[in-house]
Give the backbone structure.
Amino acid sequence: MFTMIVAMQLTTSIFFAIIWGIIALLIRLRAKKKQGQPAGIWSRFVCLGFDLAVIYILFSVLAYRGSLDNATSLTSLIFFGYFFFFWLFFSSTPGKMIAGMKIVQKDGRKSLRVGQVALRLLGYVLLIIGWLFALRKPKRALHDRFAGTKVVYNNEKINERDKKDKILLLVSLGIFVVLFVSYFMHGLGEVTNKYKETKNLKLVDINRDGVSDILMFDLDENGKYEMVKYDVDYDGIVDRVLYDLNNDERTDAVDLNNDGRIDGYDFNSDSKIDEKVFKGYKYIYLWKIWSALLGLSLLTVLAIAGILERKNNKTVINKVIK
Protein backbone atom coordinates (compact mmCIF):
# COMPACT_ATOMS: atom_id res chain seq x y z
CA MET A 1 0.00 0.00 0.00
CA PHE A 2 2.78 2.43 0.95
CA THR A 3 4.68 1.70 -2.28
CA MET A 4 1.47 2.24 -4.27
CA ILE A 5 0.90 5.64 -2.62
CA VAL A 6 4.46 6.76 -3.40
CA ALA A 7 4.09 5.53 -7.01
CA MET A 8 0.86 7.56 -7.41
CA GLN A 9 2.56 10.67 -5.98
CA LEU A 10 5.52 10.17 -8.31
CA THR A 11 3.29 9.75 -11.37
CA THR A 12 1.27 12.85 -10.49
CA SER A 13 4.46 14.90 -9.98
CA ILE A 14 5.88 13.81 -13.35
CA PHE A 15 2.58 14.73 -15.06
CA PHE A 16 2.58 18.24 -13.56
CA ALA A 17 6.30 18.70 -14.33
CA ILE A 18 5.56 17.97 -18.02
CA ILE A 19 2.59 20.37 -18.10
CA TRP A 20 4.47 23.22 -16.37
CA GLY A 21 7.54 22.54 -18.53
CA ILE A 22 5.54 22.91 -21.76
CA ILE A 23 4.02 26.20 -20.54
CA ALA A 24 7.51 27.42 -19.55
CA LEU A 25 8.76 26.66 -23.08
CA LEU A 26 5.92 28.74 -24.52
CA ILE A 27 6.92 31.59 -22.20
CA ARG A 28 10.50 31.32 -23.50
CA LEU A 29 9.31 31.65 -27.10
CA ARG A 30 7.30 34.76 -26.25
CA ALA A 31 10.15 36.24 -24.18
CA LYS A 32 12.65 36.51 -27.05
CA LYS A 33 11.66 40.14 -27.54
CA LYS A 34 11.73 40.88 -23.80
CA GLN A 35 15.44 40.35 -23.08
CA GLY A 36 16.50 42.31 -19.99
CA GLN A 37 12.92 43.12 -18.99
CA PRO A 38 11.49 42.05 -15.60
CA ALA A 39 9.59 38.74 -15.56
CA GLY A 40 5.93 38.93 -14.52
CA ILE A 41 4.46 37.13 -11.52
CA TRP A 42 2.37 34.66 -13.54
CA SER A 43 5.38 33.54 -15.61
CA ARG A 44 7.35 33.11 -12.41
CA PHE A 45 4.53 31.05 -10.89
CA VAL A 46 4.72 28.68 -13.86
CA CYS A 47 8.46 28.22 -13.25
CA LEU A 48 7.83 27.69 -9.54
CA GLY A 49 5.19 25.07 -10.39
CA PHE A 50 7.74 23.16 -12.48
CA ASP A 51 10.40 23.42 -9.76
CA LEU A 52 8.01 22.22 -7.03
CA ALA A 53 6.98 19.27 -9.22
CA VAL A 54 10.65 18.31 -9.69
CA ILE A 55 11.27 18.69 -5.95
CA TYR A 56 8.30 16.44 -5.21
CA ILE A 57 9.70 13.83 -7.60
CA LEU A 58 12.95 13.94 -5.62
CA PHE A 59 10.94 13.64 -2.37
CA SER A 60 9.14 10.56 -3.69
CA VAL A 61 12.33 8.86 -4.89
CA LEU A 62 14.72 9.80 -2.08
CA ALA A 63 12.94 10.96 1.08
CA TYR A 64 10.54 8.08 1.78
CA ARG A 65 13.19 5.54 2.69
CA GLY A 66 13.25 5.56 6.48
CA SER A 67 11.62 6.82 9.65
CA LEU A 68 9.48 9.96 9.76
CA ASP A 69 12.26 12.00 11.42
CA ASN A 70 14.77 11.02 8.75
CA ALA A 71 12.27 11.70 5.93
CA THR A 72 11.67 15.20 7.35
CA SER A 73 15.42 15.89 7.39
CA LEU A 74 15.85 14.67 3.80
CA THR A 75 12.86 16.73 2.66
CA SER A 76 14.36 19.88 4.19
CA LEU A 77 17.76 19.17 2.60
CA ILE A 78 16.21 18.60 -0.84
CA PHE A 79 14.25 21.86 -0.69
CA PHE A 80 17.23 23.87 0.61
CA GLY A 81 19.79 22.33 -1.75
CA TYR A 82 17.61 22.66 -4.85
CA PHE A 83 16.96 26.39 -4.59
CA PHE A 84 20.16 27.45 -2.81
CA PHE A 85 22.71 25.81 -5.11
CA PHE A 86 20.82 26.39 -8.38
CA TRP A 87 20.53 30.08 -7.50
CA LEU A 88 24.16 30.18 -6.42
CA PHE A 89 25.74 28.47 -9.44
CA PHE A 90 23.27 29.24 -12.25
CA SER A 91 21.38 32.34 -11.03
CA SER A 92 18.29 30.36 -11.95
CA THR A 93 16.36 27.13 -11.39
CA PRO A 94 15.46 24.46 -13.97
CA GLY A 95 12.00 26.01 -14.31
CA LYS A 96 13.41 29.48 -14.95
CA MET A 97 16.06 28.03 -17.29
CA ILE A 98 13.31 26.53 -19.48
CA ALA A 99 11.48 29.88 -19.52
CA GLY A 100 14.68 31.84 -20.24
CA MET A 101 14.82 33.73 -16.92
CA LYS A 102 17.62 34.57 -14.52
CA ILE A 103 17.85 35.99 -11.01
CA VAL A 104 20.37 38.82 -11.00
CA GLN A 105 21.56 41.54 -8.68
CA LYS A 106 19.60 44.76 -8.73
CA ASP A 107 22.11 46.31 -11.19
CA GLY A 108 21.68 43.24 -13.40
CA ARG A 109 25.38 42.69 -13.95
CA LYS A 110 26.80 40.13 -11.52
CA SER A 111 25.96 36.62 -10.33
CA LEU A 112 24.34 36.35 -6.93
CA ARG A 113 26.46 36.47 -3.79
CA VAL A 114 26.14 33.86 -1.02
CA GLY A 115 24.54 36.36 1.34
CA GLN A 116 21.97 37.38 -1.26
CA VAL A 117 21.05 33.76 -1.97
CA ALA A 118 20.65 33.05 1.75
CA LEU A 119 18.50 36.14 2.30
CA ARG A 120 16.42 35.42 -0.78
CA LEU A 121 15.76 31.82 0.30
CA LEU A 122 14.84 32.98 3.79
CA GLY A 123 12.40 35.51 2.34
CA TYR A 124 11.16 32.90 -0.15
CA VAL A 125 10.05 30.64 2.70
CA LEU A 126 8.90 33.18 5.28
CA LEU A 127 7.47 35.99 3.16
CA ILE A 128 4.95 34.06 1.02
CA ILE A 129 2.64 37.06 0.80
CA GLY A 130 5.59 39.01 -0.64
CA TRP A 131 4.79 37.58 -4.09
CA LEU A 132 2.00 40.14 -4.33
CA PHE A 133 4.64 42.89 -4.65
CA ALA A 134 5.57 41.43 -8.06
CA LEU A 135 2.13 42.40 -9.41
CA ARG A 136 3.22 46.01 -9.75
CA LYS A 137 6.30 47.62 -11.24
CA PRO A 138 9.23 47.03 -11.05
CA LYS A 139 7.85 43.48 -10.63
CA ARG A 140 10.09 42.56 -7.69
CA ALA A 141 8.66 40.27 -5.02
CA LEU A 142 9.36 41.05 -1.38
CA HIS A 143 12.11 38.41 -1.20
CA ASP A 144 13.76 40.15 -4.20
CA ARG A 145 13.66 43.51 -2.42
CA PHE A 146 14.88 41.78 0.73
CA ALA A 147 17.95 40.32 -1.05
CA GLY A 148 18.61 43.09 -3.60
CA THR A 149 17.74 40.92 -6.61
CA LYS A 150 15.35 40.85 -9.54
CA VAL A 151 14.12 38.25 -12.04
CA VAL A 152 14.57 39.15 -15.72
CA TYR A 153 14.34 37.50 -19.13
CA ASN A 154 17.97 36.75 -19.87
CA ASN A 155 19.61 34.00 -21.95
CA GLU A 156 23.12 35.43 -21.66
CA LYS A 157 25.86 34.09 -19.40
CA ILE A 158 26.19 35.86 -16.05
CA ASN A 159 29.59 37.26 -15.05
CA GLU A 160 31.90 34.57 -13.69
CA ARG A 161 33.12 34.52 -10.09
CA ASP A 162 36.71 34.70 -8.94
CA LYS A 163 38.50 31.34 -8.90
CA LYS A 164 38.83 31.32 -5.08
CA ASP A 165 35.13 32.01 -4.63
CA LYS A 166 34.22 29.26 -7.08
CA ILE A 167 36.44 26.71 -5.29
CA LEU A 168 34.85 27.51 -1.92
CA LEU A 169 31.36 27.18 -3.35
CA LEU A 170 32.23 23.83 -4.94
CA VAL A 171 33.58 22.67 -1.57
CA SER A 172 30.30 23.70 0.07
CA LEU A 173 28.37 21.75 -2.57
CA GLY A 174 30.58 18.71 -1.90
CA ILE A 175 29.90 18.91 1.85
CA PHE A 176 26.17 19.22 1.18
CA VAL A 177 26.23 16.10 -1.02
CA VAL A 178 28.06 14.14 1.71
CA LEU A 179 25.52 15.36 4.29
CA PHE A 180 22.59 14.36 2.07
CA VAL A 181 24.03 10.92 1.26
CA SER A 182 24.72 10.38 4.99
CA TYR A 183 21.08 11.08 5.86
CA PHE A 184 19.90 8.92 2.97
CA MET A 185 22.05 5.95 4.05
CA HIS A 186 21.13 6.50 7.70
CA GLY A 187 17.47 6.29 6.80
CA LEU A 188 17.67 2.98 4.91
CA GLY A 189 15.74 0.92 7.44
CA GLU A 190 14.36 -2.58 7.64
CA VAL A 191 11.28 -2.91 5.43
CA THR A 192 8.31 -4.54 7.15
CA ASN A 193 6.65 -6.05 4.07
CA LYS A 194 9.61 -8.29 3.20
CA TYR A 195 8.49 -10.79 5.88
CA LYS A 196 5.97 -13.62 5.63
CA GLU A 197 4.19 -15.12 8.60
CA THR A 198 5.60 -18.43 9.91
CA LYS A 199 5.16 -20.44 13.10
CA ASN A 200 7.97 -18.35 14.65
CA LEU A 201 6.86 -14.99 13.24
CA LYS A 202 3.51 -13.28 13.67
CA LEU A 203 2.55 -10.26 11.55
CA VAL A 204 0.09 -7.60 12.75
CA ASP A 205 -1.51 -4.86 10.60
CA ILE A 206 -2.80 -2.31 13.14
CA ASN A 207 -4.21 0.32 10.77
CA ARG A 208 -5.39 -2.18 8.12
CA ASP A 209 -3.48 -0.60 5.25
CA GLY A 210 -2.21 -3.90 3.88
CA VAL A 211 1.27 -3.46 5.37
CA SER A 212 2.41 -5.18 8.56
CA ASP A 213 3.09 -2.69 11.35
CA ILE A 214 4.29 -5.12 14.04
CA LEU A 215 6.60 -8.14 13.62
CA MET A 216 6.60 -10.55 16.59
CA PHE A 217 9.46 -13.08 16.72
CA ASP A 218 9.59 -16.29 18.75
CA LEU A 219 13.35 -16.76 18.54
CA ASP A 220 13.72 -19.92 20.62
CA GLU A 221 10.41 -21.52 19.60
CA ASN A 222 9.09 -21.65 23.16
CA GLY A 223 5.71 -20.16 22.30
CA LYS A 224 6.63 -16.70 23.62
CA TYR A 225 7.70 -13.68 21.57
CA GLU A 226 11.15 -12.46 22.64
CA MET A 227 11.53 -9.70 20.03
CA VAL A 228 8.90 -7.28 18.68
CA LYS A 229 9.58 -4.80 15.85
CA TYR A 230 7.33 -1.75 15.48
CA ASP A 231 6.63 0.57 12.55
CA VAL A 232 5.64 3.56 14.68
CA ASP A 233 4.75 6.01 11.88
CA TYR A 234 3.28 3.49 9.38
CA ASP A 235 5.82 4.20 6.65
CA GLY A 236 6.76 0.56 6.04
CA ILE A 237 10.10 0.88 7.88
CA VAL A 238 10.84 -0.59 11.33
CA ASP A 239 11.43 2.25 13.82
CA ARG A 240 11.80 0.51 17.18
CA VAL A 241 12.64 -2.97 18.46
CA LEU A 242 11.59 -4.25 21.90
CA TYR A 243 13.13 -7.28 23.63
CA ASP A 244 11.85 -9.63 26.31
CA LEU A 245 15.16 -10.94 27.66
CA ASN A 246 13.83 -13.08 30.52
CA ASN A 247 10.69 -14.53 28.91
CA ASP A 248 8.30 -12.83 31.34
CA GLU A 249 6.27 -11.37 28.45
CA ARG A 250 7.29 -7.84 29.48
CA THR A 251 9.60 -5.44 27.66
CA ASP A 252 13.11 -5.45 29.15
CA ALA A 253 15.26 -3.74 26.51
CA VAL A 254 14.86 -1.28 23.62
CA ASP A 255 16.68 -0.76 20.32
CA LEU A 256 15.65 2.75 19.26
CA ASN A 257 17.25 2.89 15.81
CA ASN A 258 16.86 -0.76 14.78
CA ASP A 259 20.59 -1.32 14.28
CA GLY A 260 20.64 -4.63 16.13
CA ARG A 261 22.19 -3.14 19.28
CA ILE A 262 20.34 -2.66 22.56
CA ASP A 263 20.33 1.06 23.40
CA GLY A 264 18.87 0.75 26.88
CA TYR A 265 16.83 -1.21 29.39
CA ASP A 266 13.14 -0.77 30.16
CA PHE A 267 12.39 -1.69 33.77
CA ASN A 268 8.70 -0.73 33.88
CA SER A 269 7.62 -2.12 30.48
CA ASP A 270 6.53 1.27 29.08
CA SER A 271 8.58 0.79 25.88
CA LYS A 272 10.88 3.64 26.92
CA ILE A 273 14.52 3.53 27.98
CA ASP A 274 15.06 3.80 31.74
CA GLU A 275 18.80 3.16 31.65
CA LYS A 276 21.00 3.71 28.61
CA VAL A 277 23.56 1.19 27.39
CA PHE A 278 26.61 2.99 26.01
CA LYS A 279 27.58 0.21 23.59
CA GLY A 280 24.31 0.65 21.75
CA TYR A 281 23.79 4.35 22.39
CA LYS A 282 27.27 5.40 21.23
CA TYR A 283 26.24 4.82 17.61
CA ILE A 284 23.34 7.23 18.06
CA TYR A 285 25.74 9.78 19.55
CA LEU A 286 28.25 9.23 16.73
CA TRP A 287 25.54 9.86 14.12
CA LYS A 288 24.47 13.08 15.83
CA ILE A 289 28.09 14.27 16.05
CA TRP A 290 28.78 13.38 12.39
CA SER A 291 25.67 15.16 11.06
CA ALA A 292 26.33 18.20 13.29
CA LEU A 293 29.96 18.44 12.09
CA LEU A 294 28.89 18.29 8.44
CA GLY A 295 26.22 20.93 9.03
CA LEU A 296 28.66 23.26 10.81
CA SER A 297 31.30 22.69 8.10
CA LEU A 298 28.78 23.64 5.41
CA LEU A 299 27.77 26.83 7.24
CA THR A 300 31.43 27.73 7.91
CA VAL A 301 32.50 27.33 4.27
CA LEU A 302 29.49 29.34 3.05
CA ALA A 303 30.19 32.06 5.62
CA ILE A 304 33.85 32.32 4.51
CA ALA A 305 32.76 32.41 0.85
CA GLY A 306 30.25 35.16 1.66
CA ILE A 307 32.87 37.24 3.49
CA LEU A 308 35.38 36.89 0.62
CA GLU A 309 32.74 37.81 -1.97
CA ARG A 310 31.79 40.90 -0.01
CA LYS A 311 35.45 41.85 0.34
CA ASN A 312 36.07 41.40 -3.39
CA ASN A 313 32.96 43.42 -4.19
CA LYS A 314 34.17 46.33 -2.04
CA THR A 315 37.57 46.19 -3.76
CA VAL A 316 35.94 46.44 -7.20
CA ILE A 317 33.76 49.37 -6.06
CA ASN A 318 36.79 51.24 -4.68
CA LYS A 319 38.66 50.78 -7.97
CA VAL A 320 35.67 52.14 -9.90
CA ILE A 321 35.46 55.20 -7.58
CA LYS A 322 39.17 55.93 -7.99
About this structure: Residues 114 and 306 are 5 Å apart (CA to CA). The two ends are 69 Å apart (CA to CA). The helical segments are 2-30, 41-63, 68-90, 94-99, 114-126, 142-147, 163-186, 278-321.
